[in-house]
TrEMBL record:
Gene3D superfamilies linked to this entry: Jelly Rolls
A GO cellular component annotation in the UniProt record: cytosol
Keywords: Activator
Listed name of the protein: Cyclic nucleotide-binding protein
Any Pfam family hit: cNMP_binding
Cytoplasm is among the record's keywords: no
Organism: Paenibacillus beijingensis
Domain Cyclic nucleotide-binding: 11-57
Length: 190
């Protein structure tokens, strides 16, 4: 699993092998069971995550108690919450493991210490976040401009493994449609 981390460091930094190994040795890799809640909506996050194996669902619950799934994070994706602009710094989302997961877990309180110790690590993190943000912008623009059927087709093209990994009602929520509509669209497509 650590080879995934080395891949990112080689691609996004010029760290020596010794520095890369030292960083990996300092990282905490944690296994979580399916159903584990990493962060609850309303909580102040103290950790960030990088998924080595598994799938995590991001969702929120509105005032009427309805869940809305806004993302799924899978292998080689980071879960970082940007809520420093909020007075209470609470999360607008709950993050729950949809599968058993293995993740690198970073402590937000010691993050700056790691960046000072390994200056290229901050640059690598920024590049990863920029790539992720760019991808999210593209996906959001495509989502807004597309029909439900086009959203399903895009999902089948870009993230087909989600169909087997995620319950249909959560996938339908993510696509902004009902589970019944998702079923009908999948039948039409196949």
């Amino acid at each position: 699993m650590k080879d995934i981390l080395f891949k990112y460091m080689v691609r996004l930094t010029s760290l020596s092998e010794e520095e890369q190994q030292a960083i990996v040795n300092e990282l905490h890799i944690v296994e979580y069971n399916k159903g584990t809640v990493l962060i609850r909506q309303g909580d102040v996050p103290t950790k960030c995550y990088f998924i080595l194996k598994g799938c995590v669902r991001q969702y929120s619950i509105d005032e009427e108690g309805r869940e809305a799934t806004s993302n799924f994070y899978t292998e080689e994706q980071a879960i970082a919450i940007f809520n420093h602009h909020k007075p209470d710094k609470s999360s607008d989302y709950t993050f729950m493991c949809v599968e058993d997961c293995t993740m690198v877990v970073g402590d937000l309180n010691t993050e700056q210490d790691m960046y000072k110790k390994y200056t290229q690590l901050e640059s690598m993190t920024r590049k990863m976040i920029e790539e992720s943000f760019s991808q999210l912008q593209e996906e959001f623009a495509a989502f807004i401009a597309s029909s439900p059927e086009e959203r399903v087709k895009a999902l089948l093209m870009k993230r087909p493994s989600l169909l087997d990994r995620v319950p249909q009602h959560q996938l339908a929520s993510y696509l902004g449609i009902t589970p019944e509509s998702l079923s009908r669209i999948k039948k039409r497509i196949h």
